[in-house]
Amino acid sequence: DTERAEGDEAELRAVLRDFWGYDSFRPLQKEAMQCGLAGRDSVVVLPTGGGKSLCYQAPAAVLHRRTGAVAVVVSPLIALMKDQVDALTAIGVPAAFVNSTLPPEEKIAVSRRLRDKELACLYAAPETLVTDRMLDFLSELDVSFVAIDEAHCVSQWGHDFRPEYRQLGMLRERFPDAAMHGYTATAGQKVREDVAFQLNLHDPAMLVGSFDRPNLTFRARPASGTLGQIREVVKRHDGESGIVYCISRKKVDETADALRGLGVRAIAYHAGMSKEERTAAQDAFLADREDVVVATVAFGMGIDKPDVRFVVHAGMPKSIEHYQQEAGRAGRDGLASECLLLHSGGDYRFWKSTLGELPPEPRANAEQSLNALYDYAQGALCRHKALVRYFDQDLESDDCGACDICLGEVETVDDPLILGQKIVSCVYRLEQRFGGNHTADVLTGSKSEAVLSKGHDSLSTYGLLSDHPKKAVRDWIEQLVGQGFLAKVGEYATLRITEAGQQLLKGERKPVLLAPAKKVAAERPKRTS
Ligand code: ADP
Ligand code: ZN
């Protein structure tokens, strides 16, 4: 078996060199490709730019060379299929695609090439693939494996569930001899396991890469004079490529106008524009004729511009998955790049108000992910750490050197140790039986019924932080939770003191606590003309 693995590896290296001109594997590519060759089901989770496509393209090329078998690649991005197929064809890996946009005579040409074993990869849209005709036709062929791109779309737990993906579960039955592989850039453990379950994978290899993007510097700020905040970043990257995401089409147009007024080569992109206008905008950006794309979320899926030097979110997106994916479009070439997230309570309430239409379960997920992003934005934990933790990973270092928190750019309180100790002591006095709200009431000396009736006004920690607004104390408690000094447990989110919290009480560990935010005015980009 090791002998076979070594042979496989040598063959993969040769294919990588001869067709793609690459001389090494990216992290986990080798393992993922070996699953492809060995016919072992797998779920491959790599960040955007991690090189997922190669994980199925290279083994498909090898298997086609060996036996003439074809790999079926399921992708939701119809608009990109042609590009992907052209790129493969150009380097000598024979590929084709089928989707609803393909004229019948070309479909016939593709089926002929499939029968003649000419193709290494067949790209298919999910809804095209699961038709009876298509499945009957394919089951007569030698299918090496089925690769499912953007596999999180199969899970309701994911942030981008697509009903047409749900049917892919039947592929296992229709292709009992072909291995199945799912690829995604976003999947916490729950989604990962659900992907495997929904696709009926058999004992899949779970290959999960590191989600950290060390070359990105992350910052998060309350929105306050948004245009000025965007401009600051654009100025640092004069003449370089960047993306500015806005929540609404109107904001996109306003912001693009305003940036142009400042002499920036900026262009708008949103779904309200015609297809031609959008393609023109995208091409101008890719060809460096425009520096900055101001866009809604409609922009970016599948766009591989390696030298995007910054991504600014002028408004907060609706989930931490969206943020990770959109910000992740910066610095695909591995060079230093920056990401700035501007957030406000208004954005939060806007997204929250849109959740009402969802059924209960997706709604709870969407809400959890929205809350996680808001916590991330307002939190005082290293941004790199906070992002990977959401995806069930961790980082060793306590100082990433590449986020506003670790770089000391964020205004913090002067004596976080004493402040943290006061708060944790209060949790201790309350016998770790109350939540954040009540704890903040006690610390700020509230005379509420709940405090007085329990006699908590006689605790030694009562009113200890009465010179701070309750909101500030409440935020600090959340920050202590975020940094692991306190934990919320049970249905009532009761505060408990963790091991780290004990160390804090002894002065062995120090938290980072943010200075209370100054009041931020509701902000619209100012027109310059
Ligand atoms: P993903 O789908 O994970 O976002 P891609 O498959 O689009 O990533 O790959 C991102 C970029 O990295 C592409 O330009 C690709 O050609 C390049 N790439 C992938 N694997 C390698 C490798 N082993 N060596 C060099 N470049 C690679
Ligand atoms: Zn950091």
TrEMBL record:
<dbReference type="GO" id="GO:0016787">
    <property type="term" value="F:hydrolase activity"/>
</dbReference>
<keyword id="KW-0233">DNA recombination</keyword>
<keyword id="KW-0547">Nucleotide-binding</keyword>
<keyword id="KW-0413">Isomerase</keyword>
<dbReference type="GO" id="GO:0005524">
    <property type="term" value="F:ATP binding"/>
</dbReference>
<dbReference type="GO" id="GO:0006281">
    <property type="term" value="P:DNA repair"/>
</dbReference>
<feature type="domain" description="Helicase ATP-binding">
    <location>
        <begin position="33"/>
        <end position="205"/>
    </location>
</feature>
<keyword id="KW-0862">Zinc</keyword>
<keyword id="KW-0234">DNA repair</keyword>
<dbReference type="GO" id="GO:0009378">
    <property type="term" value="F:four-way junction helicase activity"/>
</dbReference>
<keyword id="KW-0378">Hydrolase</keyword>
<keyword id="KW-0067">ATP-binding</keyword>
<feature type="compositionally biased region" description="Basic and acidic residues">
    <location>
        <begin position="1"/>
        <end position="8"/>
    </location>
</feature>
<dbReference type="GO" id="GO:0006310">
    <property type="term" value="P:DNA recombination"/>
</dbReference>
<keyword id="KW-0227">DNA damage</keyword>
<dbReference type="GO" id="GO:0046872">
    <property type="term" value="F:metal ion binding"/>
</dbReference>
<feature type="domain" description="Helicase C-terminal">
    <location>
        <begin position="226"/>
        <end position="374"/>
    </location>
</feature>
<dbReference type="GO" id="GO:0005737">
    <property type="term" value="C:cytoplasm"/>
</dbReference>
<protein>
    <recommendedName>
        <fullName>DNA helicase RecQ</fullName>
        <ecNumber>5.6.2.4</ecNumber>
    </recommendedName>
</protein>
<dbReference type="GO" id="GO:0030894">
    <property type="term" value="C:replisome"/>
</dbReference>
<dbReference type="GO" id="GO:0009432">
    <property type="term" value="P:SOS response"/>
</dbReference>
<dbReference type="GO" id="GO:0003677">
    <property type="term" value="F:DNA binding"/>
</dbReference>
<dbReference type="GO" id="GO:0006260">
    <property type="term" value="P:DNA replication"/>
</dbReference>
<dbReference type="GO" id="GO:0043138">
    <property type="term" value="F:3'-5' DNA helicase activity"/>
</dbReference>
<dbReference type="GO" id="GO:0043590">
    <property type="term" value="C:bacterial nucleoid"/>
</dbReference>
<comment type="similarity">
    <text>Belongs to the helicase family. RecQ subfamily.</text>
</comment>
<keyword id="KW-0238">DNA-binding</keyword>
<keyword id="KW-0479">Metal-binding</keyword>
<keyword id="KW-0347">Helicase</keyword>
